[in-house]
Amino acid sequence: MENNKQKIGLVVDDICSLPEKILAEFQIEVVKMKLYFPEWEKFPEKNLYQLMKETKAHPKTSAPSPGDYLKAYKKLLENFEKVLVVTLSSKLSATYSSARQAKELMPDPSKIEIFDSLLASAPEGLLALRAGELIREGKNLEEIVKTLGNLREKAKLFGFLETTYWVEKIGRMSHWQGKAFGILKSLGVQPMIGIKKGKVGLTGFNFWTRDILEALFHQLKHEAKKQKIRLGINYTDNIDLAYKLKEKVEKELGAEVLFTSLAPPIIGANSGPGTLLAGCLSV
Questions:
Q1: pLDDT tens-digit profile of 88-103?
Q2: Percent of the chain with pLDDT over 90
Q3: CB proximity list for 216: less than 8 A, separation 6 or greater
Q4: How far apart are CA 92 and CA 133, in angstroms?
Q5: Residue 122: is its pLDDT beyond 70?
């Protein structure tokens, strides 16, 4: 039976925001984060971000359990010899820890390889997608992990928030940082969020425009001058803006946008309505 199995299966968490089409194409198993938002249960017909704006209530989130990962491992090992797991940054969530605990519960832990992306959102998705491509190319686990490690160092996340209200509520930004953010925005300066060494925070400022689309495009243009890049875009309640950015990037930069997808509720719950994110990975 072992001879009939494919070599490597791939597990990701839903923070990577890969669309269903890509997940199906590469046979990727998704372990989902947990979200608890009573207001959404009362009004399921309403949009999550609409409810957040109306109620000012903040959804509660938590990492998948080791049991969630254990279930995914067992499922994939029915058809694959080994499993590669790409996780959300270990510095942002207990997801990586849950994946490791589940590995130790397996009869043969050596069949599971866990890779901490030190990323989140679109760049995590780009890294996971590259892992899928490398598996398809026939690379072994050691080669794949080495390549992912090199790509991780140059991966970037750029994002602009409508307000800091939501990131302050979850403790990702202090009240005083939020005040400074608000003052800068009132002066026409766009503070930018990103990810450094596995942690999300303020990473720069855009002084050229108040327009989120133009601000993001400026950052991506700067990256495209340094290296050839592939991109992923995440939106919350601003799908039209996301597709305008995609069109502009492809037309003016000639860069490939591999996916434009709705940010998972966990991302949107923490960054808030109006957030637009773009990730890039070197080719």
A1: 999 989 999 999 999 9
A2: 60
A3: 158, 159, 160, 245, 276, 278
A4: 26
A5: yes
Q: How many domains does the chain have?
A: 2
Instruction: Tell whether 140 and 173 lie within a shared domain.
Output: no
61 contacts 34 by C-beta, under 8 angstroms: yes
- Residues above pLDDT 70, as percent of the chain: 89
In this structure, of 169-173, 178-182, 185-189, 191-195, the range with the lowest mean pLDDT score is 169-173
Same domain, 28 and 148: yes
CA distance 8 to 70: 16
At 75, give phi and psi (nearest 5°).
Answer: -65, -45
- Shared domain for 264 and 180, answered yes or no, is yes
Last residue of a domain, one of 152, 176, 196: 152
> 253: which residues sit within 8 A by CB, 6+ positions away?
220, 221, 224
Q: Are 9 and 84 in contact (CB under 8 A)?
A: yes
pLDDT tops 60 at residue 105: yes
Res 258: pLDDT? 98
- Both 162 and 242 in a single domain? yes
Last residue within a domain, chosen from 152, 171, 195: 152
pLDDT tens sequence across 74-83: 999 999 999 9
Residues 107 and 137 in one domain: yes
Residues 6+ apart with CB under 8 A from 23: 30
- The tokens describing 143, both together, are 């080669």
Using CA atoms, how far apart are residues 58 and 279, in angstroms rounded to an integer? 25
Q: Which residues constitute the domain of residue 117? A: 2-152
C-alpha separations of 136 from 9, 128, 180, 276 in Å? 10, 13, 47, 31
262 and 205, same domain (yes or no): yes
Q: Comparing C-alpha atoms, which of 165, 173, 166, 162 is closest to residue 201?
A: 173
